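Dear Dr. V.,

Thank you for agreeing to look over these. As mentioned in my earlier message, I'm a first-year student in the group and I'm still getting used to reading structure tokens, so any feedback on how I've presented them would be very welcome. I ran two proteins. I've put each sequence directly above its structure. The first is here:
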Amino acid sequence: MPRHTRLALLAAVAAAVAAAPAIAQDKPAAKKLYCWNQNGARVCSDTLPPEAVNQARDEFNAKSGLRSAEVQRAMSSDERAAAAASEQQRQADLAAEQMRQRTDQAMLMSYQSEDDLRRVFNERIAIVDNNIHTARFNVTSLREGLASMLRSAGDRELAGQAVADKLAADIQQRHRELMAQLRLQTSFEQQRVALDDEIADILQRYRAMKEPPAGAAPTG
């Protein structure tokens, strides 16, 4: 192949490679098909109406029919508040664990008396007790809300009316939240019992450390 022909061919190939990204960018986005549940029925459409934006849905490639995404339902304000409270409790638990580790490591050198050591334990006790109090409050609130919704559903049934889908869904959601909060409460109460045992063990070790060696002459 003549040299000038080969150079022309290479230039054409290079130009094609350089143009490829631009061509790819000009390619229109693939159309989507959205599917979600509405009033107990499965609804699919190539457009997403405003009332379905916050609902859980599957997204499919309209050409291939393959699912391209799964979008979770947007959390309600109550759920966001519960998630924030759970995160606060997680942070408090983490702080308590870090404090426990520092206490256990440094107590043999840092505390001059058992009272000094007990003051640190009292901080940890206060954190766990606050978690228990918060969980119990949330359980009471969720239980009262669930009872109110169940009464509303019962009144509709007694009146010969169907229970609305939204009310039925709210009852199920509130029950799930109540069960989750009860598990949290049980966990915190178990932590409190374990903390009492841990404190007793550390105090025993601290006292043993403070005791003078056998046969040592008393000071003072």
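The second protein is here, in the same arrangement:
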Amino acid sequence: MSKGLQGAVLRMLHADEFRLRVVSTALECGGLMKRVTFSSCGRLPDALFEPAAWMRLWFRTETGREVQRAYTVAGFAPDHSTIDVSFYLHQTSGPAASWAQWVQSGATLDVSVLGSWPFHMNEHDDGVVLLGDETAFPALRAILSGLPDGVRAHVLLTGEHDLTEFIPSRPGLDVRCMPARRAARGFERMLRGLDDERRSATGNQGKTETRPGMTWDCWAAGESSRMRAVRAAVKHSDAVRSQESHIQGYWSLHHVI
């Protein structure tokens, strides 16, 4: 089955291509998500085994056309023989969620890897600020699981479901949840709190990017229009490294994924 123009462009850019086979599946997060474990007959790219690494999975639509959807690697075996992907089973199911709903062991998916941007925290920063809805939840958990001990983390979960209970506790972790319509204001309040903390610690001095312990990394993903508000809030924050922040629209209210 042809992958169309997108597939041709990825091949031209020398994307890694391989096929995954489903080993097992399991519902998680109260049945809101399905975790699918894959194996590969060949060696998987090393880039997939870093926090929040992602790959392009190819799904067939009802018309027979193949489309790509990006998914985070939610976990992997210590020997790198298998990888896990968590699919959010949203009600307005696109080709990816529909596939995950009914998939069984033995099924296969074609995969392309190009442009994956794993999360790497600046070692001089005080902590991380994370925001995401259900579609970004697997990436949020992957980032948290890869943080060094003692690193502070402020997490704001948005969307239709409260997933706070599915985030393992750790020292220095603050997790909050609020409806998507209030998330932008909640995020702004969170950043203002970090700005106040920073000004207090620096004696009300100006922004000092090189001073350790006074800045935060930011990673956010979710609905595209809401990410624009997040991007604006980060831009006006003294505490967050705006130029190094990762803020990405995963989906649109007007487009089913």
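From my reading of the second output: The two ends are 20 Å apart (CA to CA). The helical segments are 4-12, 95-102, 137-145, 180-201, 224-235. Does that match how you would interpret it?

Kind regards,
E.
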